[in-house]
């Protein structure tokens, strides 16, 4: 089944006084099965996301990645540092612009699975916040930037909001589950640090014996008590 | 005689510390953390215990991003300044180790 966004695209073009343009975005283009059925849709004009909720509990998303051009046909400067997604950005508010859209300019984003059929979708007032209403409740989906760090032959790759995959050249990989929403990660050969803007967590990396040695050797006198506890691992 | 090389694959992690910080960015060098917090660069050990604090002037701006390569720490501020520090010394002296480069014209302040 193909799903049209004609109504939503029409709202978009009214906002930017563009010409009438209609096209189709398929759920299959977002990586969903052809048997999926869309039952809700929401558009985020600030970040230019279209999201669709399906009967099987999947939220598919597309992001507009095309360019904008002015009504007289002249392109906007490519080096324009202004961010159209900025809520204070008003460059296009009083200027007639033309949206040159086609289905190829909507980039599929990773889909998210929630519990139950997604009957309602609503973007939040801030950026990257989407509410999905199901028969059993509501799920808040928050956009997360996945971070990575590479140092001394050790790579830390965030794969989830609170999980980091550690890969080494010699000893394979393993996961570290933190209990914070990771907003940054940095790694070297023996330690990894994650933080979220309110707290930071430091992890020692290596085999069991190495970790013990690191904890004992690399501590300040003021933290000896914690280090002794850590050496009992 | 048979020589067998045993390769250790028992990778694991141990949480060393968990401390409160409002740092926007953190760099890691051995047992030292460099944290961009408020209008200063905070240098701590792995437990968040402060070793040194380097305040930034209003003209320099607020430190936003940190990146460490070898002995050199690069700090970008919201005023478009990149500040370089040699962190190989035991004591970082801001007056002698900081170099500021403006995006419009390169100026050396130290």
Features:
heterodimer, A: 233 residues, mainly beta, 4-stranded antiparallel β-sheet, 3 helices, disordered C terminus, B: 110 residues, Thrombin, subunit H, 1 helix
Q: What can you tell me about this protein's structure?
A:
The complex is a heterodimer of chains A (233) and B (110). Chain A is mainly beta. Chain A has two domains: 2-142, no CATH class; 148-230, no CATH class. Chain A is 12% helix and 39% strand. Chain A contains three helices and 18 strands. A four-stranded antiparallel beta sheet of chain A has the order 3-4-5-8, with no helix packed on it. Chain A has a four-stranded antiparallel beta sheet with strand order 12-13-14-15, with no helix packed on it. In chain A, strands 9-10-11 form a three-stranded antiparallel beta sheet, with no helix packed on it. Chain A is elongated. Mean pLDDT of chain A is 74; it is low at 1-18, 70-82, 86-94 and 208-233. Chain B is mainly beta and 110 residues long. Chain B has one domain (25-102): Thrombin, subunit H. Helices cover 4% and strands 50% of the residues of chain B. Chain B contains one helix and nine strands. Chain B has one helix spanning 94-97, and strands at 12-20, 25-29, 32-37, 40-45, 50-55, 63-69, 72-77, 81-86, 99-102. In chain B, strands 2-3-4-5 form a four-stranded antiparallel beta sheet, with no helix packed on it. A four-stranded antiparallel beta sheet of chain B has the order 6-7-8-9. The longest helix of chain B has 4 residues, at 94-97. Chain B is globular. Chain B starts with 11 loop residues before the first strand and ends in an 8-residue tail after the last strand. In chain B, 25% of the residues are buried. Mean pLDDT of chain B is 80; it is low at 4-8 and 105-110. The chains are: A mainly beta (233), B mainly beta (110). Strand 18 of chain A pairs antiparallel with strand 1 (12-20) of chain B.
């Amino acid at each position: 089944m193909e799903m049209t966004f004609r109504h939503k695209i029409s709202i978009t073009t009214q906002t930017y006084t563009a010409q009438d343009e209609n096209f189709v975005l398929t759920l299959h283009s977002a990586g969903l099965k052809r048997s999926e059925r869309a039952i809700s849709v929401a558009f985020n004009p600030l970040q230019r996301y279209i999201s669709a909720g399906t009967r099987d509990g999947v939220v598919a998303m597309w992001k507009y990645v095309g360019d904008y051009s002015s009504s007289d046909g002249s392109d906007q400067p490519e080096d324009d540092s202004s961010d159209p997604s900025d809520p204070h950005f008003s460059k296009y508010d009083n200027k007639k612009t033309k949206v040159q859209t086609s289905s190829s300019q909507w980039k599929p984003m990773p889909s998210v699975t929630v519990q139950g059929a997604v009957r309602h979708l609503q973007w939040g007032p801030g950026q990257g916040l989407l509410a999905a209403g199901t028969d059993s409740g509501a799920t808040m989906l928050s956009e997360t930037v996945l971070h990575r760090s590479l140092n001394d032959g050790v790579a830390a790759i965030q794969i989830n909001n609170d999980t980091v995959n550690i890969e080494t050249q010699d000893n394979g990989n393993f996961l570290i589950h933190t209990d914070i929403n990771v907003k940054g990660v940095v790694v070297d050969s023996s330690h990894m640090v994650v933080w979220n803007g309110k707290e930071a967590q430091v992890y020692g990396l290596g085999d069991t014996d190495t970790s013990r040695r690191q904890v004992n050797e690399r501590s300040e006198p003021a933290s000896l008590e914690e280090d002794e506890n850590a050496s009992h691992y | 005689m048979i020589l067998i090389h045993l390769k250790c694959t028992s990778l694991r992690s141990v949480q060393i510390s968990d401390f409160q910080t409002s740092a926007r960015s953190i760099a890691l060098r051995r047992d030292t953390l460099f944290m961009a917090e408020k209008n200063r660069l905070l240098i701590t050990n792995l437990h968040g215990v402060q070793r040194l604090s380097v305040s930034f002037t209003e003209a320099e701006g607020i430190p936003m991003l940190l990146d460490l390569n070898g002995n050199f720490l690069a700090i970008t501020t919201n005023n478009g300044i990149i500040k370089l520090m040699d962190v190989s010394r035991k004591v970082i002296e801001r007056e002698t180790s900081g170099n500021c480069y403006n995006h419009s014209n390169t100026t050396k302040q130290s």
